[in-house]
Design goal:
With 173 residues, this protein is mainly alpha-helical. The chain is built from eight helices and no strands. Helix 1 crosses helix 6 and helix 6 packs across helix 8.
Length: 173
């Protein structure tokens, strides 16, 4: 029987993971979700899902892999739920007056805004490919889809990014 003063091994792994890799996990979640608030929530949810059941035998590296996978799955699950509501998106009210912005701010390329325009799977593939530096086969394994589907999502996502970025270039001229 474990001594009450000693905390279980998983708590040490969790503490060390958050201390050493917490910022990297939050950055990863931010790139996936596009929102700092959502990123924090994704990391928190992933940590709870990963360590919610008392699991011993984790190393920090294996725990980080589980948490990253949980972040991605949680984000994609939320994206699936949101797609049901896209049919009523036209009902959202947009302000009639657009506030003036500094021209320098307008001319700056905001990659995060461009990523937000992508569909969830496209964004996940682009981030996993270019932020995580994963190969197509690894992305396919992570997402549980075929390599051809990953290539298609990457192609579509990059094409949409290219169009968005070229539109911004045209606006600056």
């Amino acid at each position: 029987m474990a001594s009450p003063s000693r905390s279980p091994e998983w708590e040490h792994v969790l503490t060390q993971l958050v201390r050493e890799r917490g910022d990297a996990l939050t950055t990863y979640a931010y790139l996936i979700s596009g929102s700092r608030d959502d990123a924090s929530d994704l990391v928190q949810d992933a940590l709870v899902k990963t360590f919610g059941r008392l699991r011993n035998g984790f190393t920090v590296a294996s725990a980080e892999a589980y948490v990253r996978r949980a972040i991605l799955n949680t984000y994609l699950d939320a994206g699936r739920r949101r797609t049901r509501w896209r049919k009523i998106a036209h009902l959202q009210v947009t302000p009639e007056i657009d506030e003036a912005r500094d021209t320098e701010v307008q001319s700056r390329v905001d990659l995060q805004a461009q990523l937000m325009r992508l569909r969830p799977r496209e964004r996940a593939c682009v981030v996993l490919r270019y932020y995580e530096d994963l190969k197509v086969d690894d992305i396919a394994e992570w997402l549980g889809i075929s390599a051809g589907a990953v290539k298609r999502y990457l192609s579509d996502g990059l094409a949409r990014l290219a169009v968005s970025l070229s539109d911004e270039e045209g606006d600056r001229d």
